[in-house]
Structures are given as C-alpha cells and as structure tokens.
Write a structure and sequence with these properties.
heterodimer; A: alpha+beta; Glutaredoxin; four-stranded mixed beta sheet; 3 helices; 5 strands; B: alpha+beta; five-stranded antiparallel beta sheet; five-stranded mixed beta sheet; 10 helices; elongated; KaiB_domain (chain A); Thioredoxin-like_sf (chain A); Circadian clock protein KaiB (chain A); KaiB-like (chain A)
C-alpha cells in the first residue's frame, strides 16, 4: 500500500518536444508512476516546448524530456528517460514513503 | 587564501540541487536520452532537436549493407557500423581504437596505408583484402574521403564486401559498363572512319568530269553516310543494341536530300515519323540504306522538268507488329520496268535489302511515286 499524507495535491510538469515516440514514452512512464504512488491524487501537466517555449524558460528547462516535480517543493528536475530504478528518487521528491524503500 | 564569502545553508542546498540537476543533464545527454534542448535566445527560447537531424542517418548507416567507418589518418578506428564489425568478426565496441591495418591481410597493408594517406588528403579508393580476427579473408573495395570539419575523425570510409553474390553482380555490372564504354568508343571510331571515306568520295566526285561517274560516286558517298549515321546515333544513345528508327531515318533522309538538292532547289522534304520505336542495328542499317536509295531516286528523277512544288515525303509508323516506312514524291513517277526487277543498282539494292530483313516492298499507284516497306520489328539479340 502507498501511504500518502499530502496536505497539497502534488503537481508535476512533464516537458516534452513534439509528439515523438520518446515523448509518448515519457508521458506513459510518468502516468504509470503517478498512478502507482498517488492514484487519482496528483496534477500532471504535459508541456510541449514547441508550443509553450516560454513556460520552459520560466521553469529553467534545458533539455527534454524533463519531469519537474513542482509541488511539494523544493522543485526537482529529472532529465532524460525515467527508468523504474529512478522511481524512488521521484517518490522522494514527492515526499512519498514507498514500499520500495 | 582569502576569506570565502559565507553562504547560507539554504543557498548551499540550492546550489547543490542545481549541480545535481546539471549532472543529470550531462548524464541524459551522454546517454542520448534527451531529444531536444531549449536554448534562451535574444528573441525567446529556441528549441534544438537533438535526434531529428542525425537519427535517420544513423539508422541508415547502421542498417546499410556496407561497412562504414570514421578513421584517424593513421587508420585508427573511431567508429564503425555493425556491418563492418561483422566483416571484421568482432563486436563493434572492440573495434574502436584498433587500427584498420590490423584487419587487412598482411600482403595488402602497405597498399591500405597508401590509400589511408591519400584518403586523408582528399579521397581514394581501391581493392583490399580484409582479414577477420579468425584469419578468414574476404575481398573488399574501400572508398575513403577526408572530413573537413572540427570533428577529430580525419576521414570516413565505406567498405564494400566483394565476397557475396551481390558482389559478383556488382563486378559484372562494372564489367558490363566498361564493355559498353568500349563499344561506344568503337562506334565513334567507325563513324569517324566512315566519315573520312565519305569525305574522300565527295572530293573525288567533285573532281570527276564525267557526270555519270561523278553521280555514282556521290551515291556511294550517301550510302556510306547512312552507315556512319547509324554509328553516330548509337554512340550517342543509351542503348548500344537498339536504335530509334524514326530519328535515324529522318536524319538520313535529310542528309541525302541536302547533299543532292541543287542549291536553291524548291524541292521540299516532309517527314512524319513516330519516335520511340527501337529496332535492332542490322535492320536499322538496311532500312537506312533503303531510304537513302529511295530519297536519292526521288531527288534525282522525280522532277526532271520543274521542281516547283516538289515534295518528297518520309512517313514511318508502327502497323501492328510491323514497321511501315513510306517514301513518296509528287513527281513524274517511275518507269514501269523498275518494279519488275529491272532498274538501277539503287533499286536492286533496295530489293536485296528488303529480302535480307524479311520486309515487303510495295509500289503505290501514281501520280508520283510511292514506295511502301513493311518490316517486322526485330527485337533484342542484334549483333
């Protein structure tokens, strides 16, 4: 069981570049991760840097795909492909205690 | 050393996080996981796709059926594709850093070293024998080209495996191309020689005072020109075995008409030919000589009194599987003896040539003269 005691609903932003297979894969992975740790209790924004380059600049995004954990803070960025071995680090940034630990 | 400015723990944590993020970025870039970079430009953020441009080429290089490498001038391999690794009998990652010379049969190493230095200077290519790590050898063709940019590789190489059946086909194609080139050259020379003969005959005809002898020599000159035209058209054309008969006969008719018409003669030549019909060379030569005779007959004999409104026409088109060639004029018509086997050397030649190519010869009713030749269209196999 996942134990989530979040006062705020976590906010994640996934920055991708266009509808490439890599982008699609990143979106699928992040969705799976969210559903695993905080089913139904998260906000995920997928931002295409081609469509909204200014938002990428505001968030200091340098490369895509980048997953930015915005809330709870402090903001943490995960750049590149998210493997299942990276998931505990993402969970830690979300202040989630997991069974994996 | 001086005093370090004091940093608050929060600031240190922020910098550490930033550092961790940059390390993450470097790792992602090194692993090829990032697909685009967002760069802040003066007019807003710019997005540079990382794989977009390179990716298709990379796939191409990895899947092509030829070895591809980048090399230093001394032959050190910086990169090779999987096909080359297969030829070398080693995994790709074990080839980086090795010398290409180690993968060449000892007897060919000197040659390969020469190709490498020529390649680093510009480009080079040549046959070499590759020797895999297990000692097996295979013939190959290597093409090298210098890279003129800031990358550390000094040249790139493409290695074609010449040991498989495809290689045999490639060698055959090359041999065939060479033979065709030779044949083209032969046609060119034959044409030149025939042109010389033709010119000599013209000079001779001009110096013969007896008009009949002079005319006979000129006839021969036209026949030889017809032959020269075949060779000229062949070495200019793509196929060496076939000739566009419409174009050829039109050229011949024009050439004969021009050589025989008296300057300022009002006789016109009208032609109406289908293009794109290919026939073999033997038939083309025969038809060329036939048209030479018929057109020269018309020019010489059809208009004995007045050539005003005189028209000689050449028509050529396909009629079923056969070729229909018609030479006609609106002149006085032929004497009846001609089509019964008598007549000039010219008409005997026409009849003989028709027999030779299995063509039928038909004389149309007047007025004027109409000669129709129907010839089966000979396909390939021309010698």
């Amino acid at each position: 069981m996942d134990i989530t005691n979040q006062p705020v609903v976590p906010l994640l932003r996934l920055y991708v570049a266009g509808a490439t297979s890599r982008s699609t894969r990143a979106i699928t992975t992040v969705r799976r991760l969210c559903e695993r740790y905080m089913p139904g209790r998260y906000r995920l924004e997928v931002i295409d840097v081609y469509q909204q380059p200014d938002r990428a600049r505001e968030d200091h995004i340098i490369a895509t795909p980048t997953l930015l954990v915005v809330e709870p803070g402090p903001p943490t960025a995960f750049i590149g492909e998210l493997r299942s071995s990276d998931w505990p680090r993402v969970a830690a940034a979300l202040n989630i205690l997991t069974d994996d630990d | 050393m001086g005093h370090e400015p004091q940093m608050s723990p929060a600031e240190i944590a922020r910098l550490q996080a930033r550092l961790a993020e940059l390390e993450e970025l470097v790792r992602a870039l090194q692993m090829g996981e990032a697909d685009a970079l967002v760069i802040d430009g003066p007019r807003g953020p710019l997005i540079y796709t990382l794989r977009g441009a390179e990716h298709p080429y990379r796939v191409l290089v990895e899947t092509m059926n030829e070895g591809a490498l980048t090399l230093l001038a001394d032959g050190t391999i910086l990169y090779c594709n999987s096909k080359f690794a297969e030829m070398a009998g080693l995994p790709q990652d074990q080839l980086t850093g090795r010398s290409l010379l180690d993968l060449v049969a000892p007897a060919d190493r000197l040659l390969c070293a020469e190709l490498l230095s020529a390649g680093a200077a510009g480009s080079s290519k040549g046959p070499i024998t590759l020797q895999a790590v297990d000692g097996s050898q295979r013939p190959a063709q290597i093409s090298l080209r210098a890279l003129r940019d800031e990358t550390e590789a000094n040249m790139c190489a493409v290695v074609t495996d010449l040991s498989g059946p495809q290689a045999v086909a490639a060698q055959l194609r090359a041999a065939l191309a060479e033979k065709e080139l030779l044949l083209r050259e032969v046609h060119h020379r034959v044409k030149n020689n025939l042109q010389i003969v033709s010119s000599l005959l013209r000079l001779q005809a001009e110096n013969i005072s007896d008009e009949r002898v002079s005319a006979a020599v000129q006839d021969s000159q036209n026949r030889i020109r017809a032959l020269a035209l075949v060779h000229e058209q062949l070495y200019r054309s793509e196929s060496l075995a076939h000739i566009d008969i419409g174009e050829y006969l039109q050229n011949i008719a024009t050439s004969v008409w021009r050589s025989l018409s008296v300057r300022g003669s009002p006789i016109r030549l009208a032609s109406e030919v289908s293009h794109g019909i290919s026939i073999n060379i033997d038939q083309a030569i025969a038809l060329g000589l036939i048209v030479t005779e018929l057109v020269s007959n018309s020019v010489k004999h059809a208009f004995p009194h007045s050539a005003k409104d005189g028209v000689i026409s050449l028509r050529l088109h396909k009629e079923g599987d056969a070729l229909r060639v018609e030479v006609a004029d609106n002149g006085v018509g032929m004497p009846p003896t001609v089509n019964t086997g008598g007549g000039s050397l010219g008409m005997q030649l026409v009849q003989g040539l028709c027999r030779q190519i299995g063509a039928t010869l038909q004389f149309g009713a007047g007025p004027g003269t109409t000669v129709v030749i129907r010839a089966p269209i000979g396909k390939a196999d021309a010698g």
